[in-house]
Design goal:
heterodimer; A: about 110 residues; five-stranded antiparallel sheet; B: about 110 residues; mainly beta; seven-stranded mixed sheet
Chain lengths: ~110, ~110
């Protein structure tokens, strides 16, 4: 079963704009991770945020986590055509437990 | 590039056949997890192997089985293939107890 739900399901923006994707989940977690997937291939790990963290940055990525609302957001600033991909949030209860993924957001960045 | 490799890239089988998918983990990683991703869905956990033993299993029937070898590479076997088994199969390697998993490029299985 899917734990997380990403919103929106699809997003289309112009190059240079910011893209925001949201993720909601159902149960308590140890950490939340965001992955990118290009054209139905393997997943690339983007960023991990732990349950005791509220915000994290990595390059053009900014992730927030609100455990009281059981939600997270991923912001990609100054988007590029190469950012076109599907983005998934995944939750984990500990370091050894399986990742539970949402259905993903399909991002299209138009040059 | 994560250093995780999978073979084959694509595979076509008919209903009722058996299939074996292979995964080589990233150097230094001792844990392999397998996921099934149906079209338009997020990956779903099948099982995890650590030290050659199954270390957790998702909601998949027993005809999905696996192995892990002493070099930490792994196989996923599916018997009595069904049409719904058509999906992208992803393996991910990690170090036990570490949160981040590194995914391979996947094997696209089509069951006709």
């Amino acid at each position: 079963s899917q734990q997380g739900e990403e919103d929106p399901q699809a997003l289309s923006i112009q190059e240079g704009e910011n893209a925001t994707m949201n993720c909601s989940y159902k149960t308590s977690i140890n950490n939340l991770q965001w992955y990118r997937q290009n054209s139905g291939r393997g997943l690339v790990h983007l960023i991990l945020i732990r349950s005791n963290e509220r915000e994290k940055h990595s390059g053009r990525l900014r992730v927030t986590l609100d455990t009281s609302k059981k939600s997270s957001s991923l912001l990609i600033t100054a988007s590029r055509a190469a950012d076109t991909a599907s983005y998934f949030c995944a939750t984990a209860y500990s370091g050894n437990t399986p990742l539970v993924f949402g259905k993903g957001t399909r991002l299209s960045v138009i040059a | 590039e994560t250093g995780v490799t999978q073979s084959p890239t694509h595979l076509i089988k008919t209903r009722g056949q058996q299939v074996t998918l292979r995964c080589s983990s990233q150097s230094g990683h001792n844990t392999v997890s397998w996921y099934q991703q149906a079209l338009g869905q997020g990956p779903q956990f099948i099982f995890q192997y650590y030290r050659e033993e199954e270390n957790g299993r998702g909601n998949f029937p027993p005809r999905f089985s696996g192995l892990q070898f002493p070099n930490y590479s792994s196989e996923l076997n599916v018997n009595a293939l069904e049409l719904d088994d058509s999906a992208l199969y992803l393996c991910a390697s990690s170090s036990y107890g570490v949160d981040t998993q590194y995914f391979g490029p996947g094997t696209r299985l089509t069951v006709l």
